[in-house]
Amino acid sequence: MINSLPPGFIMFIGAFLIPFLPKLGRQVYMVFLVLLSSFSLFNGFGTHLTINVLDYNFIINHSDNLSLPFAIVFHIAAFITIIYGSHKDDWKENIAVISYAGAAIAALHAGDLFTLFFWWEATAFTSVFLILGGNTTRAYRAAFRYIVIQVGSGMFLLAGAVLFLYSNGNALLGQMSIDDTSGLLIFLAFGIKAAFPFLNGWLQDTYPEASEVGTVALSSFTTKLAIYALARSFSGTDILIYIGALMTFFPIFFAVIENDLRRVLAYSLNNQLGFMVVAVGIGTELAINGAVAHAFAHIIYKGLLFMSMGAVLYRVGTCKASELGGLFKYMPITAVCSIIGAISISAFPLFSGFVAKSLIMSSLGYEGLSLIYFMLLFASAGVLHHSGIKIPFFAFFAHESGHKPKEAPLNMIIAMVIGSVLCILIGIFPSVFYQILPYSVEYQPYDFSHVLSQLQLLTFAAFAFICLWHFKIYPPELNSTVLNSDWFYRRMFPAVISNIVDGLKILNEKFSLNCFRNYNIIKNFFHDIMFENKVIDREAGFDTQIVLQIFGIIVFILIFIHLK
Amino acid sequence: MILLKLIKKFGKINSIVLFICILLLLLEFAGHRHGEFQIEEFLFFPALFGYISCIVIFKVGVALRSIFMRDEDYYD
C-alpha cells in the first residue's frame, strides 16, 4: 500500500508530526521523510493508485518519463533546502517547507485534473506560510496578495476541469487545446503559476519578502510545477513560443534597474522560465528534453543563487545592492558558491546551464525560428548581465560597504557546496544527465562551434560590463521600488475604483437635488450600503490619473469609431 | 613597458578578460564555426552580438529608470 501512494504524500502528511519533535530530531526526521518519499520513485512507470469516488476515478499516482525527472529534482531541492534551513529553530517553517515540497511532488504524479487541483491548492496553502515566515509587515501583506493569486489560479483550474469533464466525459490530464473554453481556462491557471507576462507580478512581489530559507524553497517548486503542467498538457501550442520569448525578454531590463538582489533573482527566475516555455511551445522531442533539462538545472543553480543571497541576508541583514559590497573577504566560500551559480545560470561551457540551454537553442535552430532564436540569444546576454555579473559583483566586490560579517553557518555552506558540485557535475557529464530526460535523443553540446560561439557571446558581454564599470558609465544602484505588473492590482485598480466612486458621489449629490423624495430615500439607502463603509478609500496618484486619461481617450476614440 | 602600464591602468582582472576576448577572436580562425542560422557564421558574430546586447540592455535599463523607478516606500 505504502508503495502505491504517490511520492511526496508521505512528506505532506509526515510534516504534521514535526512540532512534537526536538530541534535536532526534526532535521533528521525531515531528511528521513524525503528519503522515504524518494523510494516510491523506483516503482516504475504506469498508474499505481486510483480511487473511485461517486463513479469518478481519481488517479492519485501516475508516473511516466515526464514526471520522473521533475520528481527527482524536487526531491534534491527539498533535501538541499532542509540542510540549508537547519540552523533555524522554527518548526512552523519546517512544516511549511516539507509539506510544500511534498504537495508539489505529489502534484507531479496526479493523473487527472481534480487530483491536480487538490495538490495545486495544497502548494498554495503550504507555501504562503513561507512568505509569512518573513515576519515583517511587508511579508504579511505580500502573503495575502500571494494567496489570493494562487487560489485564483486554482479556481481557473477547477472551472476548466469541470468544463472539461462535462464536455469530454473524463478529466484525464493529457494533451489539451486552447481553442475550447475548458482548455483556455486551464491554460490561464497554468499561466498564472508560470508567471506569464502581465501575470508575473506576484512572483517578484512576494518571493523576496520570505525569509532566507523560505525563498530558496519557493524558488524551486511552484513555477516548475507549472512548467511541468504546461509540458504535459500544452506542448506544441504555438502561442507559448511567443509568450516564452516575451518572458525571456522583459524581465532583463527590470532586473538591471532593481536594487534588491533577491528581487533581481526573481526577475531572472522569470526570464529562465521563458526559455522553458519557449521549449514547451516548440513541442518536439528535443525541445521537451530541453525544457525538462533546463528546469532540472535551473532549480539547482537558482536555488544556489538564492542560498548565497540568503546567507548574505542572514549575516548582513540586507540584500540591497546599494548597501552591499566588498563581502568577498569576509564570506569567501559563499562568494565562490555564488559565482559558480552565476556561471551556471549564464550557461558557460562545463556548467549545468550550458548543457540544458543548448538543447533549447538547437531545437529553435532545427525549427527555423530565427527571430525567437535571436531574442533568446539576446536574453542569454542579459542573463549574464543581471545574474552572472550583477549578483556576485554588487554583493561581494564593487565598493567597500563597511559590513564585516562572519562566514555563513556550516549547514548553509554544506547546502551551497552540494548545489555547486551538482552544477559542475551536470556540466561535465551531460550524457549521464541526458539519460534521465523524457526522450532519448542523441545530442552533443560540446562541439567547437557551440563552445566558441557561447564563449564569445558571454565574454564579450562581460567585457562590455567591464568597460561600462571601468569608465564609470554604469550608474550607482539606488534605493527604489521598480514598478511591475503587480502595480495594476496594487495601485491602479483600487485608484480607478475610488475615482469611479468619487464620480458617482458627485453625480449623486447633483442629481438628488432634483429628484422625487421617494426616489431619494431608496437611493440613499443603497448609497449608504455601498459607499459609506469606508472600505474603498484611497487617494488616486498621478500615475493613475494619466492612465485614466489615456483610458478615457481610448474609450472616446472607440465610441467615435463606433458612431461613424 | 607600455603594455604593463596599460594593464595597471585597466586593472588585472579586466586585462585578463580582455586577453581572453582576444584569444577567442583568434580561435575563430582555428576552424569553421557553424551556426544555427546563416548570419551567425559571419566573422565574430557572437562576440559583436554579446557586446552590443549588453550595451543595449544597459542603455534601455537606464532609460527605464525614469519610467518605472519610484521611492522605496512607494507601496507602504
Protein model, in words:
The complex is a heterodimer of chains A (564) and B (76). Chain A has helices spanning 9-14, 23-39, 67-84, 91-108, 113-132, 137-168, 181-193, 201-206, 212-220, 222-233, 238-257, 261-282, 285-316, 332-345, 352-367, 370-396, 410-428, 430-434, 448-470, 487-513, 517-532, 542-563, and strands at 46-53, 56-63, 481-482. Chain A has 564 residues and is mainly alpha-helical. Chain A folds into three domains: 1-234, no CATH class; 235-481, no CATH class; 487-563, no CATH class. In chain A, strands 1-2 form a two-stranded antiparallel ribbon. In chain A, helix 2 (23-39) packs antiparallel against helix 3 (67-84) and helix 14 packs antiparallel against helix 16. The longest helix of chain A is centred in the first third of the chain and has 32 residues, at 137-168. Chain B is an all-alpha fold and 76 residues long. Chain B folds into two domains: 1-31, no CATH class; 36-70. Helices cover 64% and strands 3% of the residues of chain B. Chain B is built from three helices and one strand. Chain B has helices at 2-10, 12-27, 45-68; one strand at 69-70. The radius of gyration of chain B is 19 Å and the shape is flat. The interface between A and B is large, with 49 and 49 residues.
